[in-house]
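Entry 0007
Protein: Multisubunit sodium/proton antiporter, MrpA subunit
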Amino acid sequence: MGQSLEAGIGLSVAAPFVAAILAPIIHRFAGRFSGWILALVPAGIFAFLLGFAPKIAGGETVTSVIDWIPAYGIGLSFLLDGLSLIFALTISGVGSLIILYAGAYLAGHRHQGRFLAFMLAFMGAMLGLVLADSLLVLFVFWELTSVTSFLLIGFDHARQAARRGAIQALVITNIGGMFLLAGGILVQQVSGSWEMSAVRELGEVLRGSSAYLLILICFLGAAFTKSAQFPLHFWLPNAMEAPTPVSAFLHSATMVQAGVYLLARMTPSLGGTDVWTNILVISGCITLIWAALGALKQTDLKQMLAQTTIASLGLLVLLIGLGSTYAIAAMVVYFVAHAFYKAGLFMVVGAVDHEAGTREITALGGLADKMPVTFIAASLASLSMIGLPLTVGYFAKEEMYLGLLGGEWMAWLVLVVLVAGNAMLAGVALLIMIRPFLGETLSTPRKAHEAPVAMLAGPIVLGSAGIVAGVLPDWLGHDVLVPGASAILGMPVESHLTLALDFASPLLWLSALTWAFGIVVYRQVDAIRTLLRRFDAVLGWTADTVFDSVMFGLIRFSGALTRLLHHGQLEFYLVVVFAAMAAAIFGPMMLFGGLDWIVPTSDLGDWSQRLQLPPLQVYEWGVIGLAVLGLVAVVAAPSRLVAILSLGVQGTAVALIFLLFGAPDLAFTQLMVEILSVVILTFVMTRLRLDQRDHRRFEDWARDGSLAVLCGLGVSLLLMLVLNGTLDTRLSDFFTATSVPIAHGSNIVNVILVDYRGFDTLGEIAVVMGAGIAILALLRRARKTPAGRHPDVRKVALVRKARKTAP
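Output (structure tokens):
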């Protein structure tokens, strides 16, 4: 039973992908109920993973390994511990509500089935990412999140802004993916393992390695691009071009949290150094303040939430960088709180936009009477975002303040940043909760009314969860904080969460100061917005405009390089190819002493023996003579037709050599290729005068002849070197031993071509087929063009007419 449950972890990753394949079909038959049906998949995954909670809370871990590349010791390995379980439950739990929400939000859309498929695939990619134990598996799912998010952000591909946002997100996050791959390879080279569960025990080895700084840069590059840390944050607001269900999922529980997860996972292996702490703390502080200010200058509700997401990601990175027990505990609790309130608020904003026709905060007011349930959901989520008592957000804020009290001046400086950042986030929460719903009722593009049940279920459930978890501190501490923090720190952690309010504690007064500043921000937001926009106007550029300039320059550079290298002169292409071939042959031989045995020395007898030809039979000399005759015929051909036919003589000689040395299959193939080549060349050349000879300048003749001799000499010398060495028969022995039992073929050559080199052979066939189709198309086009209307004929006719009419 235990093994079947462990195997179910891999199935829980595969299930969303299967559902994604079936989503368009289900939507076709289920219609508006497809969201309810497909939401059962993530809900089932949530229930399945929740069954592991008691075991994980008890300090155990669960692993599952599926053979992938056993020859290299690489498997699809998954790990379930406190950290991965929290992320996986958040992804599947929030995901089930968002799939339900999306079914109503996009009701009637002609591509709703496709959208739900993309969402489920996105969910599966993120589940695989947080459950992966192997760094290679992590990289695969990491890239899948980038691809699926590209499809979701650009879902409304008819709009240029959506296409731009999708491309921007793909470019930035794929750069991070390359960083992750490089970092994973370096970690494997240093530690000898791909498994993160094994690597975490080798932290001292990694930190003591000379490659530590390079590894750290790679992982930070991956995390900062994915989790939108300053100055790589600009792609995330542009991702708001995606439909609101995507924004709700993207910002709360999925892709943008992948970088935070990676940093938390690698903390035992790479954390604990000054460079780790300094980079993460400084980057987190800057990102928190910059994005919080960015949220205040927005009037679009989705953009406000997007900027607060960036600020929250900076806060999470800051806490991971601090690395203390309190900071890590705050990071775990804050991640859960953020997932609850951010997904809920995005769904609230989507409901307002869907039912009122706008999400501009300056055009909204008095919606509480028309959308009371939506207002309740917004209030519940906003209270947690503010961090009031009896919410999960309150405990997160208390933990992050607790870890900085009584420290040195740097700790106090970070504490000031945290208070300021949390105050601005609280101000934004007050704006979202009050401005659209209370105050004077404003006219909206649509007559506002309450959203459907499927769109209200998510915000209400998540807003209520943020409150329920807040009034159950024992459960929150025992089942969330302790397992998650212990998994990050690699040591047991105790919970001290309690509902008791100590009015003598500086923590409560710091919280009160945060709330007070939040109210000030709310009341002065218009003045703050005006000031920030004036600053942007003076600055004149943003990271977004820098990205556009870089992309424009890259495109211009690519165009110039293409024009330089792909100029259309086929003759020059061939010269470059054969020159590179000669360099590739002679360069390694000269560098590694491969020519030493060829240079004559005093030991002439040994040198002459090395170049001694084996004894040949008369018919073998005849084949060599035929090859030489074909070579002379090609060089001395008096016309193009004779040159084409002489090439066939060369190919026939090669086919006879194959035949003489026991390879009849290769000989037959070579013969057929030669016949086909001669026939095709003859057909193609029919449009030219075959009875003429191509006259070339001496410079071209000398250059091409020298290259031909050099390449031929190089290939011959290389073969001599190979034949002079010891023959390694391991590969041929493997083919001989396995061709019958594995490939069920007694003809080893056929088995090699069809089975062992199957993809290579398929590629060769595809190339030949493509060339044949292109030639056939050219020939058919030539036959369809009337002789009198051929461009060359028209040109001649015009010249003749001009001569006749000339005075």
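Curator remark: The two ends are 103 Å apart (CA to CA). Residues 218 and 707 are 44 Å apart (CA to CA).
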